TrEMBL record:
Protein name: Transferase family hexapeptide repeat protein
Keyword Membrane appears in the UniProt entry: yes
Gene Ontology terms describing biological process: diaminopimelate biosynthetic process; lysine biosynthetic process
InterPro entries for the chain: Hexapep, Hexapep_transf_CS, Trans_hexapeptide_repeat, Trimer_LpxA-like_sf
Listed transmembrane segments: 20-39
Keyword flag Amino-acid biosynthesis: yes
Source organism of this protein record: Tenacibaculum adriaticum
Family affiliation: Belongs to the transferase hexapeptide repeat family.
SUPFAM superfamilies: Trimeric LpxA-like enzymes
UniProt GO MF annotations: acyltransferase activity
Entry keywords, A to Z: Acyltransferase, Amino-acid biosynthesis, Diaminopimelate biosynthesis, Lysine biosynthesis, Membrane, Repeat, Transferase, Transmembrane, Transmembrane helix
Amino acid sequence: MKKIIRFIIKVFKYLYRETILHLLWYFSSYFPMFPTLMFTKGRSFFWRLIGVQIGKKVQINYGNYLDVPSAKRLIIEDNVLIASECLFLLHKRDMSKYTGFNLQNSLPMKEAYIKICKNASIGMRTVILPGVTIGEGAVVGANSLVVKDIPPYTIAVGNPARVIKYIKKN
């Protein structure tokens, strides 16, 4: 009887992680009705449900993708704006163990946090890799690839993203 109960619990956890959380993310990312509501409060609410740590007054536009099972590793502070179709990668392969003879799929995963600090803005179709912090008041331009930390009060663009301007803090 205990084995059956443990099996049922495992199945429920799997379904929760792989189905229910993905459904919540999908619904919040691509829900076509009430776009203003979903932009201002709806997506933040659903992203909190799947485990993302989100501050106040965060605006998330449609079509953003994240590693749903690793959502707890995404930290978004207050007053952040995230444009459409951004990609937040919260894991990567440990390439230090790659020999050239083994498949990349067989390599272990390294998981890392992404932190977006207060008042930051992320441009459309930006890709943010694991282990990155985007500083307070920073702006990341559209189609950028963020591979390392972006300092506070800067504008960064490009592939890979690099700082092109420092913003004077008022």
